[in-house]
Structure formats: structure tokens, C-alpha cells
Design a protein that fits this description.
Layout lengths: L1 H13 L5 H26 L5 H20 L4 H9 L1
């Protein structure tokens, strides 16, 4: 849940940056990560038999998002990277 929130905050803040072209991959991965985290959270509350598989995919997406966010010096990106 914390990762989803951090990614949504970063996504929103990135959209307000002056050079959105430079932020494009960060924006895309923020959105992907927030979505998969939310989906995983829902699957866990349903006791989904696919939760373990979804957690593996979620970890992969979170890692990619964190790596991308680390490249940017904005506070929202650094916070997102740490949370991911």
C-alpha cells in the first residue's frame, strides 16, 4: 500500500515537472507500479491462489520503478525509489 501511494504521488509530481520528456519512463513506471501494487493488495485480501505469482511480478515492477526513480534528483522520485 505504501508503495502504491509513493508511486501515485511521484506520478502526479512528475507530470508537473518542466521537462516531462525526461520524466516519461519514470511516469510510465510509476503508473505500472502503483497499478500492480494495488492489484496485489486486492488479491491478498481475496486469498487469491495467484497471490504468490502476482507478488513476484510486483517485486519485478517495483524494482524497475525504483531503479528509474533513483536516476532523478527530485524528492518525490527519491522517496518513491526508497519505498519501491
Amino acid at each position: 500500500h505504501e508503495c502504491m501511494e509513493a508511486c501515485n504521488h511521484c506520478y502526479d509530481a512528475c507530470l508537473k515537472e518542466k521537462d516531462m520528456t525526461m520524466m516519461a519512463e519514470c511516469i510510465r513506471l510509476d503508473r505500472e507500479c502503483a497499478d500492480i501494487c494495488a492489484f496485489l493488495e486486492q488479491s491478498l485480501t481475496r486469498n487469491s491462489p495467484f497471490a504468490s505469482d502476482l507478488a513476484t511480478i510486483c517485486a519485478k515492477v517495483c524494482g524497475a520503478c525504483g531503479n528509474e526513480c533513483q536516476k532523478h534528483n527530485h524528492d518525490h522520485c527519491q522517496n518513491c525509489a526508497e519505498t519501491c
